[in-house]
Design a protein that fits this description.
214 residues, 3 strands, mainly alpha, 8 helices, globular
Length: 214
């Protein structure tokens, strides 16, 4: 049992080192790759852990069930999100909204018009930012953009264009098949549909080698 646990730990460390090597050189000093210790975590996600420091967290148990090429493209998707600066950040909006609402109520009580206007403006700005962060269409566009950039990263690391599309497509198909949440599954299906459209578009470009598609 101890031998198995040791072997498993070594395999996980080896995989984390391998993934670290898949980071573009310009990210290696401030992006880290770690296995998550949470209960029932997502397969892979990015998180800001400090100023100018990002961590890509992976559920290594679920990760191990994927093929190598599938892992690579899902990893590059997260790398693309880092490059596109679309990682959800610790929000100030909820705190600002609470302060603004509290201030507005207080100024109504003391009847200070200028401070009331400032409090309401704070509420408006924070409320708009919260709406933007939680806008489903905007989030989906960011995710699809990251898939496109993941394909480009794969070709930078030696994949042919058709193989990059096939690897990400098969990874998304696997996630669709193994995701119980209907909402999350529909998100993967939307990404897969967008990827197929992109692959078909790539096949029609002159001098392309992307006949494989998905």
């Amino acid at each position: 049992m101890t031998s198995y646990a040791t072997s498993s730990a070594k395999a996980e460390m080896s995989e984390l080192r391998r993934l670290k090597g898949l980071l573009p050189p310009e990210l290696q000093s401030w992006v880290t790759v770690e296995g998550t210790t949470e209960v029932n975590p997502p397969l892979i996600r990015c998180e800001e852990i400090g100023k100018d420091q990002v961590e890509i967290q992976i559920d290594l148990v679920k990760w191990d069930a994927l093929a190598m090429d599938q892992r690579n493209l899902l990893f590059w998707h997260e790398v693309a999100r880092v490059q596109n600066d679309t990682i959800p950040k610790d929000g100030w909006e909820m705190a600002a909204l609470a302060i603004g609402l509290g201030g507005a109520v207080g100024e109504l009580w003391v009847q200070d018009g200028l401070l009331l206007v400032l409090a309401l403006a704070l509420c408006g700005v924070s409320g708009w930012r919260l709406y933007q962060k939680n806008n489903g269409d905007k989030q989906l566009k960011e995710i699809i953009d990251a898939d496109e950039k993941a394909i480009a990263l794969a070709t930078r690391f030696g994949y042919s264009l058709p193989n990059a599309y096939k690897s990400l497509g098969s990874a998304l198909k696997s996630l669709v098949e193994n995701t119980p949440s209907k909402r999350q599954r529909s998100r993967y299906e939307a990404r897969l549909s967008a990827l197929k459209r992109s692959a078909n578009k790539a096949k029609t470009k002159p001098r392309t080698t992307a006949e494989g598609g998905l």
